[in-house]
Amino acid sequence: MESMREAADLIARAERLVVFTGAGMSAESGVPTFRDALTGLWARFDAQTLATPEAYDRDPALVWGWYEWRRELVERVSPNAGHEAVAALPATVITQNVDDLHERAGSPNVTHLHGSLFTPRCSSCGEPHRPREQAPGGEGPRTPPGCEHCQSPVRPGVVWFGEQLPVDALEGAVEAAAGSDVLITVGTSGLVYPAAEIPQVAARMGGTVIQVNPDSTPLDPFCAINLRGAAAEVLPHLVP
Ligand code: OAD
User: Which residues contact 163 (CB under 8 A, 6 or more apart)?
Assistant: First the structure.
């Protein structure tokens, strides 16, 4: 509890506060993390192997179906008390999540390092795709729609393993982390680069890093305070 008070004090005095989030941020809203085993029809797949350009090339309907299923799941759930606490802080928010729960909690200008479930685009010409209203589909493969311009299959607007992160988002995130005096890293395994560099940049540049995660992660050594707990339970205690 001592460290919780210390973290809250640091946050209350921060002048350039950054919050950096991963899948654990949305876990208590009911969105499975990437390292959770998948369930139902998806149980025999590993999220890591579906989130690649090779998987989409091999079986577009499988990968499109998985992302559509996740998009529909996200649309059914709500931001949790952790998202609301983040929105109440005067912070720059940088997320690896492809959901829109920070925005729905009221955080303005969220940087999405790994893209979004809500910005599909053509796999060939890159033209944004405007999805038509449609009834939710079932769990399982779904044929991707065709691009209105070139008829190539549409792909999810997310960053897959092996792809470049959006340059502006990454540069802005590194700049914000480097200039921060306090950075809170929430619910990320710290295993996926370059995103995992963000808290490390803050620490190297003299900022204080506070971590919220029920488990230890490779980011522990960079953190001045490690709060072992769930985002929706811990973050509300950190709002001044
Ligand atoms: P992971 O699934 O790798 O890690 C989730 C982290 O959240 C773990 O460290 C858990 O201990 C923690 N966690 C679980 N429940 C929590 C809770 N209620 N509160 C706080 N923390 C909790 O997710 P990410 O680190 O976000 O990228 O994964 C990084 C990237 O790898 C993702 O953006 C995705 C992925 O595969 C791409 O798809 C490119």
Answer: 53
